[in-house]
């Protein structure tokens, strides 16, 4: 994260917030499955296989497959337009979230949830570098490990505040999860429009920045 400008750290934290928001909505709608946290779904898959809950295992496996497909889609867009043009991947994510909201409102829950998962997979390509994820936006285990490592370094004479960006990512995801759960309990699937509008606004702002910097 030290190689990223402050605006990029802020963008990453905001997008992590969106991931937490959408994941909370998916978790509540799916009754304990995730649309962005694939470690949790992998555990559900393993438990389902061990306990003979085939339906749960197949659900988890399907969600994991869709997430990977979303990652592939986002990575292809990033490669096609150039990895520095983050607005293109963000526009893709926004489009998928809008599609998810419309589909679910129409009663097409399966395709709607699929669009949610694809969006969360694609979001991880926003900060793609040389074909690899520069900043993971939908999962925080790595960020917490890095925060702990940077704190250890600070305590032994290293850079004092290098841990802060990783904690901001975690905070964004956690607060987003709380907001998503509250919004879903109040508005149901209509809450997805909030995430779609936020990502759309971020994509437009990023596009304008890219155009001004060109």
TrEMBL record:
Residues that span the membrane, as ranges: 48-76, 88-108, 162-184, 191-209
Keywords: Membrane, Transmembrane, Transmembrane helix
Top-level lineage group: Bacteria
UniProt-recorded name of the protein: Major facilitator superfamily (MFS) profile domain-containing protein
Pfam assignment, any one: DUF1275
């Amino acid at each position: 994260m030290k190689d990223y400008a402050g605006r990029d750290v802020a963008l990453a934290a905001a997008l992590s917030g969106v991931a937490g928001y959408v994941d909370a909505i998916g978790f509540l709608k799916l009754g304990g499955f995730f649309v962005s946290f694939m470690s949790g779904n992998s555990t559900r898959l393993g438990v389902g296989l061990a306990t003979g809950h085939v339906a749960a295992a197949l659900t988890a496996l399907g969600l994991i497959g869709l997430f990977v497909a979303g990652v592939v889609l986002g990575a292809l867009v990033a490669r096609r337009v150039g990895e520095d043009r983050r607005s293109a991947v963000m526009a893709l994510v926004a489009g998928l979230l809008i599609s998810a909201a419309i589909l679910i409102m129409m009663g097409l829950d399966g395709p709607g949830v699929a669009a949610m998962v694809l969006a969360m997979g694609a979001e991880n390509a926003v900060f793609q570098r040389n074909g690899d994820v520069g900043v993971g936006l939908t999962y925080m285990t790595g960020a917490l490990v890095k925060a702990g490592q940077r704190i250890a370094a600070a305590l032994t004479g290293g850079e004092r505040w290098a841990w802060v960006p990783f904690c901001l990512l975690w905070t964004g995801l956690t607060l987003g999860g709380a907001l998503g759960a509250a919004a879903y309990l109040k508005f149901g699937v209509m809450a997805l429009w909030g995430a779609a509008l936020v990502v759309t606004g971020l994509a437009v702002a990023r596009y304008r920045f890219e155009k001004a910097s060109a």
